[in-house]
Amino acid sequence: MARKLLLEHIQVPGINTFEVYRQKGGYRAVEKALKTLSPEEVVEEVKKSGLRGRGGAGFPTGMKWSFLAKPEGVPRYLVCNADESEPGTFKDRYLMTHIPHALIEGMIVASYALGANTSYIYVRGEMMPQIRILERAIEEAKAAGFLGTNILGTGYNLELYVQPGGGAYICGEETALLESLEGKRGNPRIKPPFPAVAGLYNCPTVVNNVESIAATVPILNMGGEEYAKIGIERSTGTKLISASGNINKPGVYEIELGLPVEEFIYSDEYCGGITNGKRLKAVVAGGSSVPILPANLILKTAKGENRLMTYESLADGGFATGTMLGSGGFIVFDEDQCIVRNTWNFARFYHHESCGQCSPCREGTGWMEKVLHRLEYGHGKMSDIDLLVDVSKKIEGNTICPLGDAAAWPVASAIRHFRDEFEWHVIHGEEAQHRNFGLAHY
Ligand code: NAI
Ligand code: SF4
User: Fold this and answer.
1) Å from CA of 124 to ligand 2 middle
2) What pTM was computed for the model?
């Protein structure tokens, strides 16, 4: 059995309550941090751990914390990004539902490290049950003296608030989230300045994903150096993976980074293989915003090495033959899946969710959706395929926030790896609707 750090006690009845969480060693990290370490020492432990942002970008968490500006007399904020909306990604929801105190404990540790006295958990608006669960957990932690004024008699004060999100995917982009938290429409801001310099109410702010914040608890408990021994290369520790699609055991799994992709898909400990004994066709490994890879390239790199669940291995080969770990939203397609239809489905999502601020994204996502729709429904032309590539190139790198890239990459990669399937749709017209194309890639 693989080592579990975040989900170790997930099966313990009542682990969602303060009492049981505490019995299982909960809030030790808060005691250790507040009573024995300075805020700088906590930052140092997180740096040593090598933890990288678990929301999708993989930016080193300790480094982000050390970038936080500290002007005299200006408040600093920690904001937890719990606006999880990436298609195929549901691990933060799982964590908040079942072990809410892991997030609350992490928020206290991280707020202390950053010198924040007011912190927010911005939860996706649709997640009302999780909002209530977190509010109850905050009340319990407060009643036990872990939140509020003079926490554990150390003189440290922290107020923690849960804010329901604005109900749009774009509100998960960190600067749009801050706009929304300030009560405005969730439009992304141009970066720089990064939130670490000018964030919430123009004050220095760290925005971290739920899982990143929860991971600071085992890091503090075991020490950054020990945590860094788990995983390989610059992919240290464990990662929650949301596994979905045509697999026997969909769900949320905690893996040690470095696990071979093949083992993740086929072993009974994880996905348990492809449903109905079908063949694997493709995988989107990191939420819908990352390039799709055909079976041969998700299992092995172009160099013929086993592909591993790490930031580096999944990216090996760049976008020509690789992809990204992203948010860990692992979507598996079997041989019956139609790539054209699935690509259209993703494109529909990004078009709907574009905030409309920049033309390449606002117009480009619309065009991609329209062209993919006509290809899927049998009215496409051969020239549409290159038109899609062209539109995706015009979006990529030319927008305010990463939603534009996120919309362009799935389309470009689907055509890169499955062009013959797009052509097949053009040749066969309406007869090709919702149909997959052969198995030439396997
Ligand atoms: P990013 O790479 O722009 O930034 C990563 C983090 O590092 C940000 O917090 C940023 O402020 C910080 N940062 C980067 N350079 C910095 C500097 N020089 N100084 C200070 N701070 C700096 O990526 P971003 O926009 O935060 O995230 C994009 C990712 O989010 C995508 O890769 C996608 O996979 C993922 N995503 C996840 C979703 C989810 O539901 N979990 C939803 C949508 C996207
Ligand atoms: Fe809005 Fe799209 Fe521009 Fe992001 S890339 S700011 S979502 S229009």
Assistant:
1) 19
2) 0.96
ipTM here: 0.97
> CB of 78 within 8 A of CB of 196?
no
pLDDT > 90? residue 434: no
pLDDT > 70: percent of the chain:
98
Beginning with the edge strand found earlier in the chain, give each strand of the sheet holding 205-209 in spatial order: 159-164, 118-123, 77-82, 205-209
Pocket test residue of 64, 178, 197 for ligand 1, highest count of atoms within 8 A of CB: 64
Task: Convert the pLDDT of each residue in 248-299 to its tens digit.
Answer: 999 999 999 999 999 999 999 999 999 999 999 999 999 999 999 999 999 9
Residue 439 DSSP one-character state: -
Token readout for 141 is 């932690």
Please, which pLDDT band fits residue 435 given cuts at 50, 70 and 90? low
Q: Is 230 left (phi over 0), alpha (psi -120 to 50) or beta?
A: beta
Q: Is the pLDDT of residue 439 over 60?
A: no
210 C-alpha vs ligand 1 centroid, how far in Å? Answer: 13
Gap between the Cα atoms of 201 and 221, Å rounded? 33
Which residues neighbour 322 within 8 Å (Cβ) at sequence distance 6 or greater? 291, 293, 297, 301, 302, 314, 315, 316
Per the CB < 8 A criterion, the answer to whether 91 and 287 are in contact is no
Residue 306 has pLDDT above 80, yes or no: yes
Pairing of strands 231-232, 280-284: unpaired
CB 159 within 8 A of CB 120: no
Spell out which residues line ligand 2, taking CB within 6 angstroms: 170, 188, 354-358, 361-362, 399-401, 403-404
Percent helix / strand / coil, the chain, rounded to 5? 45, 15, 40
Angstrom distance (rounded) from CA 54 to CA 209: 6
- Residue 26 neighbours by CB distance under 10 Å: 22
| Amino acid identity, position 82 | A
Q: Is 198 a pocket residue for ligand 1 (Cβ < 6 Å)?
A: no
Across 179-199, average pLDDT: 98
Residue 440: which pLDDT band, with cuts at 50, 70 and 90?
Answer: very low
Q: H-type helices in 322-402, by residue range?
A: 339-353, 359-376, 382-395
| 39 Cα–ligand 1 center, Å | 24
